[in-house]
Amino acid sequence: MSAQTNDSNKFKGRYNEPVPTSNLVSDENDFPEFEPFDEQATPRSHAPVGAPLSVQHVDMCQQINKPNHHTSAYDIQNLVVRRGMEFVMLVTFSRPLTPQDDFQLEFLIGSDPSVNRGSLVVVTCSSRQGGPWSGQIKEMQGASVTIGVTPSANAIVGKFRTYVAVVTGTGLQRTKRDPNTDLYLLFNAWAPEDAAFFPDEAGRREYVLNDVGIMYQGSAGAVSQRNWMFGQFERGVLDACIYILDASRMPIYDRGNVIKLVRKGSAMLNSQDDNGVLVGNWSDDYSMGTPPTSWTGSVKILLQYANTGVPVCFAQCWVFAGVFNTFLRCLGIPARPITNFSSAHDNTGNLKTDLIFKADGTPDRRHTRDSIWNYHCWNEVYIVRPDLPPGLGGWQVVDATPQETSDGHFRCGPASVAAIKEGLLCHPFDSGFVFAEVNSDVIFHKRDRYGTLSPFRVDKTHIGQAIYTKAVGSTASLDVTHNYKYPEGSAEDNRTMSRAEEYGVERDHSEVPDGQLSVSITAEKVMLGQDVNLFVDFQNQGEHPRTVQAHLNASVIFYTGVTANHFRAEDFTVTVQAYQTERVMLKVTAQEYLPHLGSQLSLHFIVTGQADDQSVSAINVTNLETPRLTVTVSGEPRVQQEMFVNVSFTNPFNFPLHNVHLAMEGPGLIDCRSRYYSAIDPQASISWNETFSPRLDGPRCILAVLDSNNLRQVWGMAEIIIITA
C-alpha cells in the first residue's frame, strides 16, 4: 500500500478529510480553471448570445480600499481589509456585460475549502443566492465593472485567494491563480457587528493603529518605563502572525472566533509545550540567546520565528506582552499591555502570599515558596464575550508569560476584567489566577524550631498596589487599578472578596491584632553606582516607650522577587517614645551592592523588629536608575527622503562595560539595526550613525537600546514628525 493511501486512511473513522490547519496552499492544490456542473444539474441560465464572456483583469483597488479600511500602513503588496466593511474590486471582462451574463467572485482560505465551514465564500451580484458575504455592482464603464464586496462580520481571519468565475452553459470558467489578487482579512474594531468592535475612534487609533508603546517597569513606589516598538505594520509581520496560527495547527474555520484565537495566541507566544515563539529565561545566563533587555521591539523576534520555525531566545514578561500585543493589533484586535505592580505569584492556589521568617527575624528563604514580582506585564484585549453574562465583555486579561497551565497549556485568559472586579470567578478563562495576582494578602509568619508557623502580620494592600497602561493619544501613564478592584476595605471590596470565596478561593482569616507599633521603609531615587540612603520609620501609637530589637536584611533580587544575592544583614536597636515616630537612616554603599549586582537593578530591603510581644516588618524595593542614550535625528523629515540618526553614549562608571550590544529600530522609519563593541572603558564615549528613508508619515520615533554583561536597561529615544512627500 502506498504512503499516500496510508496517509488518507488514518483519517477514516474520525474525519472524512484532514482538518485544514494551514493558511498556505500550493497553487497545484487549488481550484480548477474549469468546473463542470453536476451531470444531473441543468444550466443556471441560458447561454448568452454572442461572444463568450471571459475575465481579462482583476484589480483589487488598493489605493481606494486601504485608506477606507485603515490598512495603508501595512508594508505588504497585497490588499489588506477588515471584515464587516465593504471593499471594491475592478473586474475587466472581454466585453460589456449583458443581462444574460452571470458571474461570481470566490474567496478561498486554507486547503480543502468548504462552503459550510466558511473557508469557501461565493459572492454573487445578481438575484442568484450567494454566500454569507454580500456583493453588488457599483459601477459599469464599458467592459470594466466595479464590484463592492462586504465580508461577514464573523468571517475567518487570514489570507484569502481570489477568483472570478464566469457561468457558462456547462460549468464555471475561473480566472487563473494570481497571487496578486490574494487579500488579507482582519478583525474590525470599526464594525459594530464584529466581536472586536471598539466604540471610540481615539481608542481604535491607540489600541489597533499605534505601532509604538510603553512598558511600565520598576516598582510601585518608583515606576519606570521603556518604549517598545510593536511594529505590527512592518514587512513580513502579518505573514508571521498567520504563520504562528499555522504552527499551532489551529483549524482554519476557528480563526474567525476572537475568543479562540486570542486563547491560542496566548499559548503560542511562549515555547512551553507547543514550540511557540519565545523562550522564557529569568536567570542571569543568556549566553545561548539574546538577553530580554536588549530587544527594541517585536519585529525581529517575529520574523526570526517565522523564518526558522525555532523558538526565539530569550524573553521575560514585558517581552511576551510586547510581542503578543503586536500579534493582536496586527490581526485587528484592540489590545494594550498592562503592568501590575507588586504582582502575586501564589504557588498554593489561594489568596495568601506567605512570607516566612526565622525566630530571629531573618527571612526564611528555604521555606518561602510564594513570590511577589516587583511588576508583571500582561495584555488586555477588548472583545465581545457572548459566552458570559451581560456586562462582562470589554477588556479581558490575556497573558502569554508561562506561569501556570490552563486546560493543559501554558496560557492565560481571556479573563473578564469586570468579572475579576466583582469576584465572579466562575467564568472562563483563568479569572481566579488573575484575581489572586491583584488581590492576594501578604501573610508574615514566624517559624519556630519545630516548624510551626505563627502569623504576626497581614498586609492587605501590598499586592496589586497599582496597575498601569499607556494613556490614549499621549505618552502619559493611565492608572487602571479601579478597573480591577474596589478601594481596599470598602463595602464593595468586602462583597467582592466574599463572592470570590464562594467560588472556592481560600482567603486568610488569621486573627492578628493591630499592634501599637509599626515600621515603614522609604528610599530616595538613586542612580546605579551611588549610595542608597534608607529611611526606616518606627511609629509608636501606645502610651509607653518601646525599645525595638530590629534587623535589616538586604539582597539583590530579580524583578520576580527571587533573591539573586544576599549582601547585608545588620542588627540595630531603636527606642520609640510614646505617640512618636523615630527615624533611623541606614546607608547602603555602592561598594556593598555592586559586587553582587550582576545585571540586576533591584535592591530588596526587609526590616523586621521585636518589641516585647509585638513583631513588626516592612519591605522596600529600590530600583537603581541607569544612564540614557542620546538619540538625535537630522535631515528633512519627509517620506522617502534620506535622513540621519546618531546614537551616542558615555560610560559614566568607574568600571568598563563588556560585550556591549547596541540596537535601534523605528517602525515606519528604520528597520532593526545593531552594532557591537567589545568594551567601553570608564568615561569613554561611542557614537553610531545610520541613514534611513521614512516610509510612513505622522508622529514617529526611533528607539535605541544598549545592553552589556554588567549594565542593562539603558535606552534612549528620538521623536519626530514626518510629512508626506
TrEMBL record:
Known cofactor(s): Ca(2+)
Entry-linked Gene3D superfamilies: Immunoglobulins, Transglutaminase-like
Skewed-composition ranges (Acidic residues): 27-38
Keywords on record: Acyltransferase, Calcium, Metal-binding, Transferase
Region (Disordered): 1-45
Catalytic center residues: 317, 376, 399
Domain (Transglutaminase-like) ranges: 309-402
Superkingdom field: Eukaryota
An annotated GO BP: blood coagulation, fibrin clot formation
EC number: 2.3.2.13
Keyword Calcium: yes
Pfam families in alphabetical order: Transglut_C, Transglut_core, Transglut_N
An annotated Gene Ontology molecular function: protein-glutamine gamma-glutamyltransferase activity
Transmembrane annotation, as ranges: none
Family label: Belongs to the transglutaminase superfamily. Transglutaminase family.
Protein name, per record: protein-glutamine gamma-glutamyltransferase
Species this protein is from: Larimichthys crocea
Lineage, opening ranks: Eukaryota, Metazoa, Chordata, Craniata, Vertebrata
